[in-house]
């Protein structure tokens, strides 16, 4: 399949109603994150006891929480936290996973040691590992990112290793070795380009998983500090008032669900178009 054919098929899929809606929602969330200081109507961390649990109105478009903080502004700023966590976790996981995967797949002397370490990390449930790391080091954005990245790296390593093992004996790679091409050139010219497609697809799933894990950790009180406006913190703060004021949980929950759904839909589309096993003959 040529690059032009691949791009044409991808654009055609992205213009379908479902994919277009997913793209629109994801772009909307990203715009919210970028323009949060201008879209927000007030300081999302400002406590105002006089406006405690205020209903929807001109002053508070989505009401206020138990501390008088504006829900609309906190939802907007929560998008910023989610996008930072998602992009940061996906980028770091792919970067470290690609490097370690190349060591394991191309330099076979490291394979057994690296893969046993990766298997050991994968044997621990990711959410439990994340909670343990956050509990040991304290809640902060950097700590949450590290706690999310560590369980995701082994999955990327296994993916990259599998791709390399499938192509390292291809004629064009063996020809490059026979001609005396230096190893770094072989890796950057022949190995890494073949990993882009599966890594892009894997990155979308890590992006969605990172947002969900961060929200789960924050909801459980083991993530970001409570004063930081994240969707998980908002749902945790509003759960005690859910029966009387369901919007405290529903508003951030809806944005979280739509964001995850959009990313997963785009990930499925990319997988269908970029994975040779999924392409219809």
UniProtKB/TrEMBL annotation:
A GO cellular component annotation in the UniProt record: plasma membrane
Pfam families found in the cross-reference section: BPD_transp_1 (PF00528), OppC_N (PF12911)
Coiled coil region boundaries: none
The UniProt record lists the keyword Repressor: no
Gene Ontology BP terms: transmembrane transport
Record-annotated membrane-spanning stretches: 20-39, 83-107, 127-150, 244-266
Keywords on record: Cell membrane, Membrane, Transmembrane, Transmembrane helix, Transport
InterPro entries in UniProt: BP-dependent_transpt_permease, MetI-like, MetI-like_sf, OppC_N
PANTHER family to which the protein is assigned, alphabetical: ABC TRANSPORTER PERMEASE PROTEIN, OLIGOPEPTIDE TRANSPORT SYSTEM PERMEASE PROTEIN APPC
Family recorded in the similarity comment: Belongs to the binding-protein-dependent transport system permease family.
Protein name stated in the entry: Peptide ABC transporter permease
